[in-house]
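Morning!

As promised:
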Amino acid sequence: MSDATTFRAPTEEAPIVRRILIGVVVVLLAVLVLAPLIVVFAEALSRGVGEAVKSLGSRDALAAIRLTLTVAAISVPLNAIFGVAAAWAITKFDFKGKAFLITLIDLPFSVSPVVAGLCLVLLLGTNSTLGGLLVANGYPIIFALPGIVLATVFVTFPFIARELIPVMIEQGKAEEEAALTLGASGWRVFRTVTLPNIRWALLYGVLLCNARAMGEFGAVAVVSGKIRGETATMPITIEMMYNEYLSVAAFSLAAVLALLALLTLALKTLLEWRHADALSATGGH
Amino acid sequence: MPGFGLSMGITLTMLSVIVILPIAMLVARGIAWGPAEVWNIVSSQRVLNALFLSFKLSFFAALFNLVFGVALAWVLARYAFPGRRFIDACVDLPFALPTAVAGIALTALYAPNGVFGSLFPFRIAYTQIGIFIALVFVGLPFVVRTVQPVIAEIEKEVEEASATLGATRLYTLRRVILPMLTPAALTGFALSLARSVGEYGSVIFIAGNIPNLTEIAPLLIVIRLEEFNYDAAAAIGIAMLLISFAMLLVINLIQMWSRRHV
């Protein structure tokens, strides 16, 4: 970087251009991204900390928090199992149609969450053949916990696999092959060779997956039926409170999710900073 | 290497049950009902307006993000300034913040009595401008995150060569740097567009949801489902699925084209 004002390297922009660009970009980002974040906390605390905390203790809010934690506790491990299995199959073996399989795994990224929910309702709703059969036998899926979990797994489907695949391609399979020739079993190779190599990438994927799982709105809105205290997750409860003009309650619950988002970002940045070499080169999304 | 059967079994089973079967059900529903009936629903004025609105505003939001995103990526990759790391982390906020939270926050900001809304002589929330702002928010990280690594990989020698040959800085940026960034920028644009077209949570609060005016396509699906009109909901869903597939194809074509040209 040149510190003289009279001389400037021909591969750099003029200092004034730099300053203007930095200024414009920072101001726009503050208005577009930071302001919404700040307003969540400002609105939540608009009638004091006490009021905000009290609204979080309401029965609806507590039920929503419990449900969201339950949904994440089921969906994230399911996704982790899928992600590891898919990454293992795709990176350790050669088979026909691999590119097509990766495209299919990425598919949920390009499908609208509302359409994802709609597909599940058509497949498993009470008026469908399969759904009718399940309800008749006492296993309702739609407007119940299993439907919310399915919708959440659908929208977060590619998250963990996508983090693991590039990392495992880069690491190759020489280490695993060495362990195998030394007589280790398949499971042992996975536990003692592969898992330590991919643990940071796995954690990175789990973080992103969890943030999305707890915050998913569109797909869950369609399949949950929005039954207060039963199938209303945190985002759904935020919507219901907001529509009932319970502004402080809605924004307090939103602030809890915003704190989760901030924590996710902080951990994500820390991981990128400390373990950049163990994560995929292209970064997250 | 062991575990092919097990890992492939888990992969294909979960993929089929959770993703493929539900999507196939939507397509099958459309086929069973008949393309003519589906088209009948999709071609109604209200549905066409909603689809057009979603696509139009998503296009403009992605265009804004294309320009802003390339500038932001350039600043983050090339300039050193205090707070750069913080700004860099902020870019991912729209990915991390739940859409419903973003939705009510943007509405509070841009409502007529909100911090930003009260600054303008015209309404922003509950109009198409409000939807545009929400879509800019959700699509913001895509262009930045696709372009940033490409800028980081550009070798200084290329710019030096251009400069020694007498090119001005602006000429170098326009004729040397910009062509290198184009494929990544277009990919980011398409990703941002695809995300925006299907976006629901951050939009419905600020949209006002007036039929034919500020009603987006995903909301219309939700309305039809709440009326238990599954056929109409499925018809709109199929139209949106086709749009998604078309955009997925475009993204893949851009990437194939860029691999051949770079």
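The radius of gyration of chain B is 22 Å.

Hope this helps with the figure draft.
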